[in-house]
Design goal:
The chain is of the alpha/beta class. The chain has a single domain, classed as Bira Bifunctional Protein, Domain 2 (BirA Bifunctional Protein, domain 2, 2-Layer Sandwich). 30% of the residues lie in helices and 30% in strands. The chain is built from six helices and eleven strands. The strands form two sheets. An eight-stranded mixed β-sheet has the order 7-8-9-10-6-2-1-11, sandwiched between helices. It has a three-stranded mixed β-sheet with strand order 4-3-5, sandwiched between helices. Strand 1, helix 1 and strand 2 form a beta-alpha-beta unit. The longest helix is centred in the middle third of the chain and has 19 residues. It is globular and about 40 Å long. The mean pLDDT is 95.
Length: 221
């Protein structure tokens, strides 16, 4: 297990791209325990990694709005995915692991949760890496691929003074009931003890306006 204790937040409120990113920021800065947040998007949003190019994102999915993540990784169309974030405060051992070890461990836990749904997947060895900007067209090492070798899960991560921010996407959207069950299974694969929780964030409008809603942030590359 990666964690001894984990808070599971099935965030049922649909949020814009900037609001979802600001919410993850706030959780990272304020959480005293590890958190698994599973969440939704309001309207048509995509996200691109911190080093991604906005022109490539717009050319690949021209019909969506874009927000830039703090984490790395490719571009993701969130109209057709299952999105989650793992927060690990700086004192958690996992926040000191090598990036590749974190990536492998979290995706192994997700693969176990999916197996309980009846979906078989495995960790990619990176041999099919394409370099494509689209996350799900570029299976890098330790991504999840299905039995046909198609990438179904990827993620980006960032570590700083507050700890680990890990933002993941699974190309298997599902309804409310199935999402709740998947969230619980995933949390149990990540931790020895899981507690359901909900959070009331403070006013995030300043954080949204100062960074994630700024064209200078989203279009910086």
């Amino acid at each position: 297990m990666i964690f001894d204790d984990l808070l599971l937040w099935a965030d049922s409120q649909e949020r814009s791209g900037p609001e979802n990113m600001a919410m993850d920021d706030w959780l990272l800065e304020s959480s005293e325990k590890p958190v698994l947040r599973v969440y939704r998007w309001r309207e048509n949003w995509g996200s691109l990694g911190y080093f991604g190019k906005i022109a490539e994102a717009r050319a690949t999915f021209p019909e969506v709005k874009w927000v830039r993540r703090w984490t790395g990784g490719g571009i993701v169309d969130h109209r057709s995915d299952w999105t989650y974030t793992v927060i690990a405060p700086a004192r958690e051992p996992v926040s000191k692991w090598k990036g590749v070890e974190i990536y492998r461990a979290i995706h192994q836990a997700l693969a176990q949760a999916l197996a309980e749904e009846g979906t078989e997947s495995s960790l990619s060895n990176g041999s099919q890496e394409t370099g494509a900007a689209d996350c799900f067209s570029n299976p890098v090492g330790f991504d999840l691929v299905d039995s046909n070798g198609r990438k179904i899960a990827g993620a980006g991560q960032r570590r700083g003074k507050f700890g680990l921010l890990y933002q993941g996407s699974l190309a298997m959207p599902c309804g409310d009931v199935a999402s709740e069950k998947r969230s619980v299974k995933f949390a149990k694969m990540l931790s020895n003890r899981t507690e359901k929780a909900s959070f009331e964030a403070p006013d995030l409008s300043a954080k949204i306006a100062d960074r994630y809603a700024q064209l200078s942030w989203t279009g910086k590359r």
